[in-house]
Design goal:
- This protein has 258 residues and is of the alpha/beta class.
- The chain has one domain: UDP-N-acetylmuramoyl-L-alanine:D-glutamate ligase (3-Layer(aba) Sandwich).
- 36% of the residues lie in helices and 22% in strands.
- A nine-stranded mixed sheet has the order 3-2-1-4-5-6-7-8-9, with helices on both faces.
């Protein structure tokens, strides 16, 4: 018998500190109100302050984990965090399209850890573009968008990305000069003006946001509302403690101007 809560999956790394990756996603899923499942794509050796190394999980093992979960549970939305390469991600996306075409993928394209460790030595633009064509939403921050699209302006990069998929550009300069997030989806533009720079710096805040979006989509919110609700959750997380590791909690309200 299935849970009354909708099921979602996170494909992400295991961060022993719990601030990012699978552990963080599981905490977010629980608080937002969905049943979270996890597929391990990597094991990191790190704390919130220090990153030493990453051990990648073989693609065959990732697919084995996915296959069993997706055969057993009614999953409609899946979030992807760190993966070994864009080629590996593309293989996973093609597998999902062939075997579970109803599943929509939200991709948090992590290039570097909070502490500066680079997960990808070089950006293969062709492989990256192919991955984008097969995801429902990509959630880069301003620096990631510029690097991924080889642009000097983040909004310009996001507009190019929109030709491939829906985009939530985080912590960028909006039209009124304020810092906020920009959702480019279905040919429409939505600005979320409450900046993720509000609150304290947190390890893994991007993981929190993307998993909260995934959870809210599974709760039958549309993409725009899911991003608004996820941002409110993330803002509460950023304000939850002065340290790098935040506290996950259900939220009553958080003003997001749009």
């Amino acid at each position: 018998m299935f849970s009354e809560r909708p099921f979602v999956i996170s494909v992400a790394g295991f961060d022993p500190s719990g601030g990012a990756g699978l552990l963080s996603d599981a905490k977010t899923f629980e608080q937002v109100g969905v049943q979270g499942l996890g597929v391990c794509s990597a094991i990191t050796v790190q704390t919130a302050e220090l990153f030493e190394r990453v051990h990648w999980v073989a693609t065959t093992i990732i697919k084995e984990q996915l296959a069993l979960l997706l055969q057993q549970y009614p999953v409609r939305f899946l979030k992807v965090g760190i993966v070994e390469s864009f080629e590996v991600l593309h293989e996973l996306l093609m597998y999902l399209e062939r075997s579970f075409p109803h599943v929509k993928v939200i991709w948090d394209p992590v290039i570097k850890s909070t502490t500066g460790f680079a997960f990808h030595a070089a950006i293969d633009k062709t492989a990256f573009h192919e991955c984008c064509r097969h995801v429902y939403l990509i959630t880069p921050n301003a620096d990631e968008a510029k690097e991924l699209m080889n642009e000097t302006d983040a909004v310009t990069a996001a507009m190019q990305l929109q030709l491939l998929t829906n985009v939530l550009l985080k912590s960028c300069k909006l039209q009124d000069g304020s810092i906020g997030d920009l959702l480019l989806a279905y040919g429409e533009r939505h600005e979320l003006r409450a900046s993720l720079l509000n609150g304290y710096a947190k390890h893994g805040s991007g993981c929190v946001l993307s998993s909260a979006i995934t959870a809210n989509l599974a709760l039958d919110n549309d993409l725009y509302q899911s991003c608004r609700l996820a941002k409110a959750y993330t803002l509460a997380y950023l304000k939850s403690s002065p340290g790098l590791l935040g506290i996950h909690q259900s939220i009553k309200s958080e003003r997001i101007d749009a």
